[in-house]
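stage 2 :: seqdesign
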């Protein structure tokens, strides 16, 4: 045994000595320098290695261009993925603010609108919105294939004609696909908003029809006018009104459009059974899980940084730091002001209105976030926090409209405030060349009343097109298909009649003494 131990020890020592000698021999001469920190990686030698020799200036330029565009592509795709998570936030907020007997129905609507909306936007909506945009510089030359626009000379574009199913008109291009991916999740937010105002009494099938309408016609046409090179964006070039109507990330295009549709739907479908007494006094119908709604608000707040900062569609545009910070400030101030408003007026810091205050601040800052300073962002958020509290009261107590989650107050009212605030507070430090106009975007307080006029025209179109066309649409759906579920289904809860399953199967409906059942 001792001999075996000695032999093993000698073998191990021999291996160690031999390895050391090999390391010394092979380390001799010129050797590549290790770079564990990555500080030297990306030098000219790396480009040479990638190009099998000393690179030419053209090859270096190509590599630099690909690197810059690569950053933009990663930025656009990553932020688009985060914006998709808006669906989770909205689903949690709306489900938490509604009653347990409708939880499955509400949650399912918020998932379904993405599925339907993605298909409708792919088939038709994207082409109508961006088919004539003519290019998207941050994504390279490929988006120039989107060059078909029906327009009126001297007035501006109406809708695009290229990019149906991401293939018509020679649009099978990486830039087009990246733009579709990013813009589709914006559209889907508009699809989601009306589900909240009509929750607890709307047919699931009616929301399917509505989502097709939003994704294929309603949203894309207005989106074209604002973001696809259409007539609202050209008010500056054609009529001398600032930079034309401007909306950086969607206070009007996304949120106010969804809010206007939510308002039209809530009016036509009518209030929930038992919501108003005979004298018109509203009856409280508390949500079943406010902590769920608060968690959903936090999810939305987080995703909003991608929603707004991602709208640069350019990872090398350092203004995204201003955008993200302004977003944080306005959302935080909006929630805080709403909390104190409710605390002072009603004696308690209402958690649900605190959530809606934060969301209102985020909606309002979405349009001006890139064009204003932090002080303006603070003020915009503060006004939004008050507006949402007042608006919820007025809509319910004065207009007798039942909006279970406050969608109209958060998205329509504060979407309009966001568009107006841009026309007031844009400070001229950003936006040079936007919509073909030299110089930064300036609001009324910084010397350009024309910009405010363009924003007011935008608001007028929101009311006429956003509310008007959705009102007509819901009227037709109500007459032909029916918007509302049967009264007995509404009273029992929509989970079983509409979805065939409970959100909470362990809950048993007890219809005995006093017809008690879990709400």
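stage 2 :: out
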């Amino acid at each position: 045994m001792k001999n075996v131990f000695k032999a093993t020890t000698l073998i191990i020592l021999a291996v160690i000595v031999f390895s050391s000698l090999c390391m010394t021999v092979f380390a001799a001469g010129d050797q590549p320098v290790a770079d564990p920190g990555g500080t030297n990686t990306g030098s000219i030698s790396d480009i040479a290695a990638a190009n099998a020799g000393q690179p030419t200036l053209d090859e270096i330029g190509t590599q630099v261009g690909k690197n810059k565009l690569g950053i933009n592509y990663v930025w656009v795709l990553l932020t688009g993925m985060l914006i998709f998570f808006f669906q989770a936030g909205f689903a949690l907020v709306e489900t938490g603010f509604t009653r347990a007997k409708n939880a499955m129905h509400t949650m399912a609507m918020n998932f379904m609108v993405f599925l339907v909306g993605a298909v409708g936007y792919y088939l038709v909506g994207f082409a109508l919105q961006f088919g004539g945009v003519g290019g998207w510089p941050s994504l390279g030359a490929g988006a120039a294939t989107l060059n078909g626009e029906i327009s009126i000379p001297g007035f501006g574009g109406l809708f695009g004609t290229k990019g149906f199913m991401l293939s018509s008109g020679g649009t099978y291009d990486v830039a087009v696909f990246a733009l579709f991916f990013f813009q589709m999740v914006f559209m889907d937010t508009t699809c989601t908003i009306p589900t909240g105002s009509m929750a607890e009494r709307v047919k699931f099938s009616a929301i399917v029809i509505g989502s097709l309408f939003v994704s294929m016609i309603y949203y894309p046409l207005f989106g074209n006018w604002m973001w696809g090179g259409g007539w609202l964006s050209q008010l500056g070039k054609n009529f001398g009104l600032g930079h034309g109507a401007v909306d950086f990330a969607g206070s009007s295009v996304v949120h106010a459009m969804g809010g206007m549709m939510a308002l039209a739907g809530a009016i036509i479908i009518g209030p929930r059974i038992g919501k108003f007494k005979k004298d018109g006094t509203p009856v409280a119908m508390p949500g079943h899980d406010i902590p769920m709604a608060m968690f959903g608000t936090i999810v939305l707040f987080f995703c909003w940084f991608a929603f707004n900062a991602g709208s640069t569609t350019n990872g090398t545009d350092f203004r995204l730091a201003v955008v993200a910070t302004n977003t944080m400030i306005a959302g935080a101030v909006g929630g805080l002001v709403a909390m104190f408003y409710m605390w002072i007026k009603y004696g308690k810091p209402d958690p649900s209105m605190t959530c809606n205050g934060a969301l209102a601040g985020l909606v309002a800052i979405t349009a001006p976030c890139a064009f204003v300073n932090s002080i303006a962002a603070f003020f915009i958020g503060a006004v939004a926090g008050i507006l949402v509290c007042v608006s919820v009261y007025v809509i319910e107590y004065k207009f007798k409209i039942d909006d279970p989650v406050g969608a109209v107050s958060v998205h329509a009212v504060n979407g309009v405030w966001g568009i107006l605030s841009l026309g007031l507070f844009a400070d001229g430090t950003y936006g040079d060349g936007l919509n073909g106009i030299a110089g930064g975007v300036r609001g009324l307080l910084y010397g350009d009343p024309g910009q405010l006029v363009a924003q007011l025209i935008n608001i007028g179109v929101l009311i006429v097109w956003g509310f008007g066309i959705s009102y007509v649409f819901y009227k037709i759906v109500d007459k032909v298909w029916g918007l509302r579920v049967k009264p007995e289904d509404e009273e029992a809860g929509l989970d079983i009649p509409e979805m065939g399953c409970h959100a909470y199967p362990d809950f048993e409906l007890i219809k005995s003494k006093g017809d008690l059942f879990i709400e």
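stage 3 :: structure notes
- The radius of gyration is 28 Å.
- The chain has one domain: 62-499.
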